[in-house]
């Protein structure tokens, strides 16, 4: 579960780094990813193709999202973008309700194997897939950002849009690419969640809050931070559920959020606290 | 005409509940009124003070639950004391949130308050002994007084409307009072607000407390109206809705939040025709309203009016306050200028480091009272750092500074401002959304300060204070010749005049000492000429002036004494004549081999 939070948090941080925007509808991207997976499977596509189609669809949605909703607001207070994303999430959630109905749906499992035993620890193949895919996505991100020309341009745009523009980088395209990546990653999280949980239209909200906490623990804008934060949130949840009470697992997560905000606002790996211009 | 329109609106508001027979619609209107109160409360924090709160559902919930827990199953007469109690409990929560808000900014504050709202919701869910958990609390009586119960939506409407009008009156009074100006100063330029004497800590907490008290009262009204509450009512969606109301109506305006509340409440009803799709359209509608109405509804109405900027010259001549004008006394240092000549500011062994970089290295210097002292040095010499240390923007070690004969342990900018240290900024930091007059008024302080209740009730003491502040502000504006542009937004002025507004703002604080950080930067020779006369006038009325400047002819003309810094160390100190010929200064500016003659040319 921690890896899912890390993935959603990563999608969130990508947009934040590139544009300073907080996307409150990131959870709906996860939800739509899961539903896209369901639809693709219902159309009897092979598993690998269904995954690709779902992720690509969400990437496209991410791009459209920035084109229509983010771009007109890019010069205004981030609050406006927050409201727009909330509007979008209400819209998406209810649209999904109309299309797929209120009953939770189930996507067939990845393989017919029930569990795999590694060194005495029993794991389901889905969980292993989540860990592997998260690791792969992170590696791909790292390679893209630090070892390609596109990555360099993306980073330049994130740090100083105006200067990047003067150097001949087309920031609009860069921000578009970032949103598309962000959408695709959130979609991936949805695809991975689909086989292990029942999917319904409200699943986005819960995931989003945990992803926020992961982002704050890890430190705003830090990609390694968000991974550590996500895994930490997953562990805290499980440990609280086992040793205290599952009722309070959300409360404890949020208490940790507040503790971090007040005591260590930089998080574990974050940028210095400052107002973003 | 205006009065007539107001009467018509009042008549409509009074007739409204009688003309609607549909109970459902009346209930909706009442809920809308409560949301409007909540939106006004959020506007205090967000619109006026510029702080972000995504936890207003929490304050709303605390108020509602306070009311429900105390009164459920009881008498409606209890409503009145508990209404106040709801405000108080929510206000306490607001103060608690205000404290972390002192340290958090922007996105961090957004997350902190978001977390707060969620925690309140989780507590409401799980503290079953008190809140009954998910079952909620029912049997909340309608308010009653002297046997008259507000037991129908029609009657409740008047109660809600009365509270809304009261809250709007408070908002309006706050907006145009010194508190409103302090809020705006905090919103536009927090740093400059502090050095202009606004107690940033107190004003932030004040904003959160006022806002949460109102939100708590709205919660109480909600509980009594609906009669049953459960934690589901106080989710993040409420916060989002209220936020949308404020943004759509117009952030920072008095009536904007109310218009936003009307829109957001009515929109889903107008869309009910298409049952299943209305939530979809609602979400999209909110998003698109934000996209296409950047300033909100009120902005749409106001934005069209263009204003002409009056010339600063009256009858072709800039009128400035002459030294023999009696009004000039309003600008003399508060508590009288020190008659004696002696050290005004003494700095001893001051050091400041940024990581490994030593910006100020063991600096010792003093500034004589009633002199013009210049601080010069190459870029990166530590001049601006010095000003920031003196005015409390950066913390300094204790025992390194004494001011007007007393050791200074204070480091809070607003405390230092109160003691008589004023400053301007190298990069403009004016309160850009305010008029010139209001900018200067932020700096004005009265000896007899009116409290918040006095200002809200418009007591004579508050009016007297305001008149006194305005007189001081007028004198300060006349001093720099900006009186004719007093009603213009400061951001509409040209560069030189914006700089002068900062100087007027500093003068209006009636400081003993004023620190000018590169006042002549970006000015043309004529403008510099005017600046020279202002600085000399400041000295004449008893101020001590410290100038950081690169414009050497300007410095050489007006300075009584010059200190030269290089790499954080003092390399020379003396009269302009002595500095001009100092070999260390020459090598600092032109390098070791620089010919003395070139220096003469450069700074003569």
Number of helices of chain B: 25
Q: What is the total tally of β strands of chain B?
A: 12
Structural class of chain B comes to: alpha/beta
Strand order of the largest sheet of chain B: 8-9-10-5-11-12
| Coarse structural class of chain A | mainly alpha
Strand line-up in the sheet with most strands of chain A: 1-2
The string of secondary-structure elements of chain A, in order, is HHHHEEHHHHHHH
Count of helical regions of chain A:
11
For the secondary structure, the number of strands of chain A is 2
Q: Estimate the helix proportion of chain B, in percent.
A: 55-70%
- Name the beta content range of chain B: 5-15%
In angstroms, what is the radius of gyration of chain B?
A: 29 Å
Biggest interface and which pair forms it? A-B, 43 and 38 residues
Domains of chain A (count): 1
Tell me the span between the first and last alpha carbons of chain B: 65 Å
Distance between the termini of chain A: 35 Å
| Helicity range of chain A | over 70%
What's the structural domain tally of chain B? 3
Shape of chain B: elongated
Low-confidence stretches of chain B: none
Give a structural overview.
The complex is a heterodimer of chains A (277) and B (604). Chain A is globular and about 55 Å long. A two-stranded antiparallel sheet of chain A has the order 1-2. In chain A, a hairpin with a 2-residue loop joins strand 1 and strand 2. Chain A contains 11 helices and 2 strands, in the order H-H-H-H-E-E-H-H-H-H-H-H-H. Chain A is mostly helical. Chain A has one domain. Chain B starts with a helix and ends with a helix. In chain B, strands 8-9-10-5-11-12 form a 6-stranded mixed beta sheet, with helices on both faces. In chain B, strands 4-3-6-7 form a 4-stranded antiparallel beta sheet, with helices on one face. With 604 residues, chain B is α/β, with parallel strands linked by helices. Chains A and B meet through helix 4, helix 9 and helix 11 of A and helix 5, helix 11 and helix 13 of B.
């Amino acid at each position: 579960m921690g890896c899912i939070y890390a993935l959603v948090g990563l999608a969130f941080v990508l947009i934040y780094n590139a544009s300073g925007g907080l996307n409150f509808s990131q959870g709906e991207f996860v939800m739509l990813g899961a539903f896209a997976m369901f639809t693709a499977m219902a159309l009897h596509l092979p598993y690998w193709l269904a995954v690709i189609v779902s992720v690509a669809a969400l990437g496209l949605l991410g791009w459209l999202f920035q084109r229509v909703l983010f771009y007109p607001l890019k010069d205004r207070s981030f609050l406006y973008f927050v409201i727009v994303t909330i509007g979008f999430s209400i819209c998406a959630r209810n649209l999904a309700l109309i299309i797929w109905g209120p009953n939770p749906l189930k996507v067939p499992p990845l393989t017919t194997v029930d569990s795999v035993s590694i060194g005495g620890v029993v794991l389901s193949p889905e969980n292993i897939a989540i860990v592997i895919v998260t690791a792969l996505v992170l590696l791909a991100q790292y390679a893209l950002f630090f070892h390609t020309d596109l990555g360099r341009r993306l980073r330049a745009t994130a740090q100083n849009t105006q200067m990047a523009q003067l150097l001949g980088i087309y920031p609009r395209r860069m921000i578009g690419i970032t949103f598309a990546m962000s959408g695709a990653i959130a979609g991936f999280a949805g695809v991975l969640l689909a086989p292990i949980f029942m999917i319904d239209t409200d699943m986005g909200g819960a995931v989003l809050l945990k992803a926020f906490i992961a982002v704050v623990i890890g430190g705003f804008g830090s990609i390694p931070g968000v991974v550590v934060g996500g895994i930490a949130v997953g562990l805290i949840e499980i440990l609280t559920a086992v040793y205290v009470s599952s009722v309070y697992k959300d409360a404890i997560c949020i208490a940790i959020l507040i503790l971090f905000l007040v005591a260590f606002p930089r998080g574990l790996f974050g940028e210095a606290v400052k107002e973003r211009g | 005409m205006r009065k007539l329109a107001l009467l018509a609106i009042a008549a409509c508001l009074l007739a409204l509940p009688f003309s609607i027979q549909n109970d459902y619609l009346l209930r909706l209107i009442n809920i809308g009124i409560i949301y409007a109160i909540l939106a006004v409360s959020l506007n205090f924090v967000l619109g006026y003070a510029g702080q972000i709160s995504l936890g207003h559902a929490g304050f709303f919930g605390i108020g509602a639950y306070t009311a429900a827990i105390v009164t459920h199953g009881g008498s409606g007469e209890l409503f009145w004391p508990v209404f106040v109690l709801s405000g108080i409990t929510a206000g306490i929560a607001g103060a608690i949130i205000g404290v972390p808000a002192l340290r958090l900014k922007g996105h961090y504050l957004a997350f902190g308050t978001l977390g707060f709202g969620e925690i309140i919701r989780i507590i409401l869910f799980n503290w079953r002994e008190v809140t009954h958990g998910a079952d909620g609390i029912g049997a909340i009586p309608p308010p009653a007084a002297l046997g008259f119960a507000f037991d129908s939506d029609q009657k409740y409407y008047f109660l809600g409307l009365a509270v809304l009008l009261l809250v709007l009156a408070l908002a309006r009074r706050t907006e145009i009072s010194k508190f409103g100006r302090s809020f705006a100063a905090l919103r536009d330029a927090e740093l400059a607000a502090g050095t202009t004497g606004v107690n940033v800590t107190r004003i932030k907490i004040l904003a959160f407390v006022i806002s949460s008290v109102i939100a708590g009262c709205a919660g109480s009204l909600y509980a009594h109206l609906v009669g049953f509450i459960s934690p589901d009512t106080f989710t993040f969606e409420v916060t989002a809705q209220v936020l949308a109301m404020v943004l759509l109506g117009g952030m920072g305006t008095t009536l904007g939040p109310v218009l936003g509340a009307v829109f957001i409440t009515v929109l889903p009803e107008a869309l009910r025709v298409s049952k299943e799709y209305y939530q979809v359209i609602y979400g999209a509608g909110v998003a698109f309203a934000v996209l296409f109405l950047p300033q909100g509804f009120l902005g749409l109405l106001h934005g069209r009016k263009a204003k002409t900027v009056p010339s600063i010259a009256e009858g072709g001549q800039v009128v400035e306050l002459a030294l023999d004008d009696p009004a000039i006394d309003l600008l003399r240092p508060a508590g009288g200028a020190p008659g004696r000549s002696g050290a005004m500011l003494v700095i001893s062994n001051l050091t400041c480091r940024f990581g490994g970089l030593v910006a100020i290295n063991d600096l010792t210097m003093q500034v004589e009272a009633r002199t013009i002292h210049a601080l010069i040095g190459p870029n990166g010499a530590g001049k601006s750092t010095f000003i920031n240390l003196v005015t409390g923007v950066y913390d300094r070690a204790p025992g390194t500074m004494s001011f007007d004969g007393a050791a200074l342990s204070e480091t809070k900018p607003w405390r230092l401002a109160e003691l008589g240290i004023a400053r301007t900024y190298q990069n403009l930091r004016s309160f850009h959304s305010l008029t010139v007059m209001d900018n200067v008024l932020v700096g004005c302080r009265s000896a007899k300060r009116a409290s918040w209740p006095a200002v809200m009730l418009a007591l004579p003491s508050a009016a007297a204070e305001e008149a006194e502040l305005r007189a001081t502000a007028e004198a300060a504006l006349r001093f720099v010749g900006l009186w004719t542009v007093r009603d213009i937004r400061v951001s509409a002025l040209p560069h030189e005049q914006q700089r002068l507004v900062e100087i007027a703002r500093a003068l209006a604080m009636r400081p003993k000492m004023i620190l000018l950080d590169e006042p002549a930067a970006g000015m043309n020779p004529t403008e510099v000429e005017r600046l020279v006369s202002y600085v000399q006038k400041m000295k004449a009325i008893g101020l001590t002036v410290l100038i950081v400047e690169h414009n050497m002819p300007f410095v050489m003309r007006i300075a009584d004494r010059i200190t030269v810094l290089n790499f954080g160390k003092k390399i020379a100190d003396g009269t302009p004549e002595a500095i001009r010929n100092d070999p260390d200064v020459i090598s600092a500016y032109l390098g070791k081999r620089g010919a003395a003659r070139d220096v003469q040319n450069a700074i003569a």
